[in-house]
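Notes, Module 5: Reading structure tokens.

Key idea: the token line is not a picture. It is a compressed description, and you learn to read it the same way you learned to read a sequence, by spotting repeated patterns. We will look at two proteins. The first is printed below with its tokens.
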Amino acid sequence: MKEYQHLIIGILFGLALLNLWYLCGIAIEEKILPIHYDYLIKAVTIIISTVIGAFLAFTFNNRLENKKSKKLNEEQIDREVAVLNRAIFNLSRAIRSLGHIKSHIDQHDTELSKALKMHVNRNFVRDISINIEYASGELRLV
């Protein structure tokens, strides 16, 4: 029974409000309240409901725009992270290539030995590009 206590109180409160509204409708007649007060009350009610409706519509639209801009911002950040991850990968490949070349150079003791006995090696892999350009608010590899 305690589970439904708030439900029963809500139903009783709603019925009490309905009864109050009915009794107020009977009590207010043209004799007690002039007709121009009725027009004034209707005008105020219409103005207040219009203002509340416009405010709620503006708030809802603003919330939708914020969600949309947040999603676009997240996509922009994801693209920038992908570009930077690729740049890091390309830099690590270049560093590894340089380390490989250095290990070949370190095998020889003297400059004459390096000049006469060392094989010709490519310095970098051809498809490595590490230039990053920041133009018009977005990162991209060049």
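Here is the second protein, with the sequence above and the tokens below, as before.
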Amino acid sequence: MRNVNPNALSLAVAIAIGSSVIATQVLAERRLQIRPVDVGDNEQVEFIHSEVTVQPTLDDDQQPIPNSFTTTYKAQDVLTCASPSMGFTDILYSIDSDVTSVDLFETGENNVARKYTKVVKVGDKSVFRFTHDLAEKQLVIEVRDGMTHRDLVKAIRAQWSVILSLEPLTKIARPDQLFGLLETVDKRAGNLGTTGDYVALATIEVDKVEVNDRTFMRLISGGDQPPELTHLGKSLFVNDEALLAAATSAYIQVHVLGEELQQQALNDLLAHSKPVGYVVHAEDDTYLVPAGYPKLAVAQAPGEVIVFHGQMQNPHDIAFVETLHSLWQEAEGINPTPTVVAQVKKYGSSGISVGKTSQPVRIKLQSNL
């Protein structure tokens, strides 16, 4: 029997334990909460609108991929309070399998944001891929090749009649249509094939993003150390609501309805619902947000949970109101317009229970021309 030096053995055990602790810290999950404020008749009510977990993305050898983080919308999670209008990310919690968003970030000197690639997956099957260079004026959307196969498209058409049309005024999809799409994908994952090849879906015109030395919020929040509020307050976030709305609209238009891509509708969608937003420190107003961009304010980051505050924005509803506004301007033939008040009916699903509502919401439109 071979003799082992007790000191060497103790050292080996200490190194193993230390390595395990380091790995656990690096791969620890961090939860991100968004708490919008629903303005009622006489009071403001704060509620937890969404909560996701963020952790480093692992490769096939279970090793962290540099600058890549996976956000998980855990299936069947119960929100603290139902929101007034379900958005595209809201319905992800209702899918039987977990929906994940895998982001790969590219940065320059001092981690300044440059480009992101996002893959949306249901279970272990990728569905959409988004590529956006912040210095360029285009955003590229691709769809998994298996999503274009006849059998899967036929199943989607047969199972979800609600998917067989888009909002006629805007040609933009509703959140419940994304639900039907992902539910079919989840239940027929075997029809998607084993290869993760993608085909082009849409290239959308967008504005160049004013980065202003900011980095990506997920890159900070998913790190091994709890982020500083001041650091988070100088970051950018990817607006998944806008990306999912665009991808769902393009897929239904081209592959489910068999029509030509409504390019202008998608351009308008991302002009009003920007693909990227800004995180600000709730107590520091020195970093201004460019007009028209979504904003999240961070005030708490106690460790495992980071809390953001911001108003909920449903791209489908925004597109509907903006289109009404444009039509009204054209009908009046006047460029400078007074304040307009429009009633927008929140579209529910027919046969899909994901928090539909039939109550109209009054939205005030103020022209800045």
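Summary for the second protein:
- The chain has eight helices and 17 strands.
- Residues 31-311 form one domain.
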